[in-house]
Amino acid sequence: MATVAAAHSDHAHDEHHDLGFIRSYIFSEDHKVIAKQYLISGIIWAIIGGLMSLVFRLQLGFPDMDLSWLKPILGEWVNESGKLDANFYLALVTMHGTIMVFFVLTAGLSGTFSNFLIPLQIGARDMASGFMNMLSYWFFFISSVIMFWSIFIETGPAGGGWVIYPPLSALAEANPGSGTGMTLWLVSMALFIVSSLLGGINYVTTVINLRTKGMTFDKMPLTIWAFTFTAILGILSFPVLLSAALLLIFDRSFGTSFYLSDIYINGQALPNQGGSPILFQHLFWFLGHPEVYIVILPALGLTSEIIATNSRKPIFGYKAMIFSMAGIMFLAFIVWAHHMFMTGMNPFLGSVFMLLTLIIAVPSAVKAFNYITTLWKGNIVFTPAMLFAIGLVSFFVSGGLTGIILGNSALDIQLHDTYFVVAHFHLVMGSAAFFGMIAGVYHWFPKMFGKMMNKTLGYVHFWASIIGVYLVFFPMHYIGIAGFPRRYYQWSGFEAFNTYADLNAFISVAAILTFGAQLIFVFNFIYSIFWGKKASANPWKSNTLEWTTPVNPGHGNWPGEIPTVYRWPYDYSKPGSESDFIPQNIPFSATPESNLPEENELIEEEKDIENIEYNYNIPD
Amino acid sequence: MTAENNITENVKPVLSINKWKFITWLFIITIVMLFASQTSAYLVRRAEGNWTEFEMPSIFYWSTSVLIVSSVLMFLAQRAAKSDDFGKLKTYIAGAFGFGTAFLVMQYIGWTQLQETGIYLKGNPSGSFLYILTGLHAFHLISGLVVLIFALVAAFRTRIHSKNLIQIEVCSTYWHFLDILWVYLFVFLLYFR
């Protein structure tokens, strides 16, 4: 606990720190810098993951295509006749899933916005422990380097799908990717889990302990609620993935038989006896299911904030939003077996998990309705962030509906592991969370970099993306209903599937165009950092505390005292008020014209809030 | 220190719990989840049959009592720190560290005993699980010893006293937790052999 001692000397935030380039921009302990590091890493990974999907989309849409032109990049993975190596196809699918789920939508989304917004919105100088926060990023960075390295080894990266089910992933003979690639995958993920836990522990501690005067739980922005629930989900579920990975590592490298039993390779029996591959699935999905909420909840939190701000209306059902997120979080832990309906589980058990799964539709629908009712008759400002937030709601609804279908164990028998599943989770989790992340970048870019992003490019990016995403994933539902299994290299062996060849080609073209649209965003992002228009301190006329900081908040966020909070964050278009927004740090005593009767009574309490004396005997 | 904080740091935690204690508890929760998943995997696998039964190494009974003694010494050390009794603090915390190290050695002897009876890491999962569970616990105990070393050094440099208890409180919370965790694992392994 050397850091405990170190924290005692951590004082005087108002002092001018001159830390030098390395401590300020590379090994920084400032939450804003760490957030930007996560964001930029996330964007780089998203480009890599996206390009991988294009390569296998080319294979699926145009199985006869000559891919020799990709030889400079893929080398031996494209053979003499210009065909993609089938094992490498599996590796690409695996890496696309792993990168997108963990590196982009967990680290890139939670890492960026939890780090950036938690201290700014609750009114704290920084995270509870800047050092742990820095460690969290650098564990993620090492994990990234290892995963990136694994792409270039001779036997290729891991190839067992992002779920790495044993025995395929446990036996090096199963697939080239089950050798060194799988080992590197496991090492990388173990480091990633450490990074997530360090981050999550920090987020929860900060929210619980470092809120400013008056920032009671019922005045916290919904973003903060979402990040807190996400962090709790991570703290409870990532250790279980570590457990699963640990036993797999022992099976692979030390000859144990946790997941292996009765296996023959080329007629030779393996010595492993008494293991159970289903055990891995239970452990994996106990993380795996909460993981999808780790991905979507922060996006929903960002959306709540953006939609309320740009509708110029209070969020509809603030408490209902909190309780539905809490409900989703709770249910996330007791539905994992709906990924395992096809493992021969007891049908009665299946029906229990089916019931629990379908109950998730209730809090999810509450959230969707609340977004729509917040928009209803609002004075909507269509900023690019707002459009992406509305796009998220659209995906959340259209992808969520197919979740109700897949959650039924009887229907899942037909649809399991088909493209219907792929379409479902790409809409409800992938695209929705991605849109939430993009919306967040457009919305908080002025606070991150002090510049505005180009609006016109933002609109082009939005329309190309939302149309593109629907063109990619909507037809996939039909392909799934037709019975196309996922993770297949090609379907030309099945006569019946030939009728859908053109639909697959259509999806591939749409995917390429959608990816191209993202380059507009990347250009806009980089261009605006350097040459964007200068932003004002509060360009969206928003209520939350981060907009009370200077345009470029320095170390410690507020130059003077941290503002005190008197009201909830959603006082938009309040009747009687001249301005259509009243920030959280404006006391009720300053707005007698718009106060409700019960708020007038709160004026007396303002003195108490201002006079809160913290117990200085508690050192930190 | 406190006077300086009064001037420079306007915003202190709203709840009166120290952030390091809170972080420690969250960290403990992650460890609980790790072992909960391991022991439930143990139960799920055991219910499937084909499960070798064997005797627990006798030294594990002794190592359990050694760890409990270490925990008691840690408690006494914390109490000594509260009353600024530095002599006792140094004795007790060094004792806690010594008994903790002895526990690790005894666990290792336990493993050799297991191997003498023919239970190896490879083989039936019942044996493998025993190695994994004790090994994981030993790994966390080593991390606990590292935390304890820092507290030990701080105690010998008289940096732990009644006005500065955070470090020893965090250390003893983690140490007691590791003790309870072992007792849980031991009883669990005895009961579900």
TrEMBL record, chain A:
InterPro entries xref list: Cyt_c_oxase-like_su1_dom, Cyt_c_oxase-like_su1_sf, Cyt_C_Oxase_1, Cyt_c_Oxase_su1_BS
SUPFAM superfamilies xref list: Cytochrome c oxidase subunit I-like
Gene Ontology BP annotations: aerobic respiration; electron transport coupled proton transport; respiratory electron transport chain
Membrane-crossing residue ranges in chain numbering: 38-60, 88-118, 138-165, 185-210, 222-250, 283-303, 315-336, 348-369, 381-406, 418-445, 457-485, 505-527
Compartments it resides in: Membrane
GO MF entry, a single one: cytochrome-c oxidase activity
Pfam families: COX1 (PF00115)
GO cellular component: membrane
Domain Cytochrome oxidase subunit I profile: 21-566
Chief subcellular location: membrane
Record membrane topology: Multi-pass membrane protein
Keywords on record: Electron transport, Heme, Iron, Membrane, Metal-binding, Respiratory chain, Transmembrane, Transmembrane helix, Transport
The family this protein is said to belong to: Belongs to the heme-copper respiratory oxidase family.
Name by which UniProt lists this protein: Cytochrome C oxidase
Phylogenetic lineage: Bacteria, Pseudomonadati, Bacteroidota, Cytophagia, Cytophagales
Automatic annotation (TrEMBL), chain B:
Keywords of this entry: Membrane, Transmembrane, Transmembrane helix
GO biological process, one term: aerobic electron transport chain
Main location: membrane
PROSITE patterns: COX3
UniProt subcellular location: Cell membrane; Membrane
Molecular function as annotated in GO: cytochrome-c oxidase activity
Membrane-spanning ranges: 22-44, 59-77, 89-109, 129-153, 174-192
Cellular component annotations (GO), alphabetically ordered: plasma membrane
Sequence ranges assigned to domain Heme-copper oxidase subunit III family profile in this UniProt record: 1-193
Membrane topology: Multi-pass membrane protein
InterPro entries, A to Z: Cyt_c/ubiquinol_Oxase_su3 (IPR024791), Cyt_c_oxidase-like_su3 (IPR000298), Cyt_c_oxidase_su3-like_sf (IPR035973), Cyt_c_oxidase_su3_a-hlx (IPR013833)
Family: Belongs to the cytochrome c oxidase subunit 3 family.
Name of the protein in its database record: Cytochrome oxidase subunit III
